[in-house]
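Input.
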Amino acid sequence: MQSNSKIVLRFMEEVLNQGNIDSTGQFFWEDMVEQVPFPGQGPGVEGLKDVLRGMRAAFPDMHWSIEEQMADGDRVLTRFEWTGTHRGEFLGVPATGRPVKVWGTVIDRFQDGKIKDTRLIMDALGLMVQLGVFPPPKA
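Output.
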């Protein structure tokens, strides 16, 4: 049986980096719960797939990497970074063509080898600054 940490790594590679969004159900329960949903995110794995499709459309070269990972019991904490080029609308922001680098953490809780609930915390403000929505902070 694969460790929960390896399952997160496989999800990141197969779904997020390779864009195989339809494979999401291999890693998440159908009724999974996103504890901190994206604006407008629907319920369950279908809601997650919609968000991932939107991200992939906005950042077609999106690439995720694991910076650090810790596991404890049924939970895995992953500190990640993703990069991409803003080629399509994202959260109401029209394509800018700008490259972005975004950090975040996610806590996944597993049940019987799949993710039952997840809590993603991402630097959305930093992303919006990179997209030019907000001016960069003054030094």
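The domain at 4-130 is CATH 3.10.450.50 (Nuclear Transport Factor 2; Chain: A,).
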